[in-house]
Amino acid sequence: MAEKFIPSNILPDLQELIPSVLATSKDNKPYTTFITWLTVKNEKTVRFALSKDSVSTENLKNNPYASVEVFGEGFALSISGKTKLIIDEIEQLPFPVSVFEMEVEKVVDNLFPGASVTGRIPFEHTGDTVQASEFDKIVLEELKK
Q1: Of 71, 53, 2, 58, whose CA–CA distance to 31 is shortest?
Q2: Contact 131, 12 (CB under 8 A)
Q3: pTM of the full structure
Q4: Which one, of 26, 37, 45, lies nearest residue 97 by Cα?
Q5: Which is higher by pLDDT, 19 or 116?
């Protein structure tokens, strides 16, 4: 059943960076990408960051409607709505990253009866993990403004 708000009992699980799948479209064809820079501001607002010159960013500039699939302990939600660019480029990063905000229009629980997600999507940085963690911190601070 579709709702118009993110359930309040799930909000605490969505306050940090959430590995998610973002769906955009171009020429009426779907495009999905895995993102990790996503958090929720409240039950009606999702924020996420993308590379400024990514396919997803270009798609959102041409069609602001998107959907994001978030997974966590006991939930798999599809959240969709209209997005807007709120920060063209995060100045503190050495590469161009934009921030988008989605006004939630629809939330669908995608778990089927008899199934449950037993935890968050496992995710870790490789390479320069210290620098990656610093970048994550900068982006999370921007998303929470």
Answers
A1: 58
A2: no
A3: 0.91
A4: 37
A5: 19
**44's tokens:** 């009606």
Q: What are the boundaries of each domain within the chain? A: 2-143
- d(CA 96, CA 109) in angstroms, rounded, equals 33
CA–CA separation, 108 and 67 (whole Å) = 10
The class that CATH gives domain 2-143 is mainly beta
Question: Looking up tokens 């996420």, which residue turns up?
Answer: 48
Rounded Cα–Cα distance for residues 36 and 16 (Å): 10
Q: What is 44-93 written as a DSSP string? A: TEEEEEEETTSHHHHHHHH--EEEEEEEETTEEEEEEEEEEEEES--TTS
